[in-house]
Design brief:
The chain folds into 2 domains: 57 residues, no CATH class; 150 residues, Sandwich (Immunoglobulin-like). The strands form 2 sheets. Strands 8-6-10-11-3-4-5-9 form an 8-stranded antiparallel β-sheet, with no helix packed on it. The chain has a two-stranded antiparallel ribbon with strand order 1-2. The N and C termini lie far apart (101 Å). The chain is mainly β. Keywords: Antioxidant, Copper, Disulfide bond, Metal-binding, Oxidoreductase, Signal, Zinc.
Length: 236
Amino acid sequence: MSVRGAYLGIGLLQTTLAAAMPAQTLLFSASSPALPHPAPPASSARPLLRSALLGQPFRCLPFSFPKVASSASSTAARPLVVVAVIKKAVAVLKGNSDVEGVVTLVQEGDGPTTVNARVTGLTPGLHGFHLHEYGDTTNGCISTGAHFNPNKMTHGAPEDEVRHAGDLGNIVANSEGVAEATKVDNQIPLSGPNSVVGRAFVVHELEDDLGKGGHELSLTTGNAGGRLACGMQYIL
């Protein structure tokens, strides 16, 4: 067979193979010295690959992978949610008498502190209820010091602008000697420079006159009498 006839036969075989192959098939080059072939035109825009079987040039077919959307870009951004920290503390009240009780405190973020108190063993009626400056009870409730007073004010009612931070007014005992009270106050935080954690609650023998009784002790203790029970706060 002449060289020209060989080229014609090879060309026909190339056409048949190319039609049978999928469009995405990639052909890899391998040199073959069996048959000479003409060089590809210099102006060809697409590279030519050679068949491993025939050593003849094949033109690469265009191919591209489908684009897949990124899950990161397709997911909508979610807004940040700031959750306020909830702080809690508790104090167990005891004394030399039969009076005892539990006080719990809860503060959400920088908001006011909610105080819940339950005290038993009291005489019926009003009893002064204060937060004192120390948590020390080594010598009984007298070791707790004066009312907590970081702003150096005189004694007053919880709603007064001029008051000790520890002035929480009175609790009321029923006929069975049980007092239950809830108080919400802005001056007794559970964190920060004026934190009340580690200080003591004290229940007094008498009614607190809220600084308005005209007694010599009205503007310091509310003339609330002796200290029946006390307890230092512990953070939960």
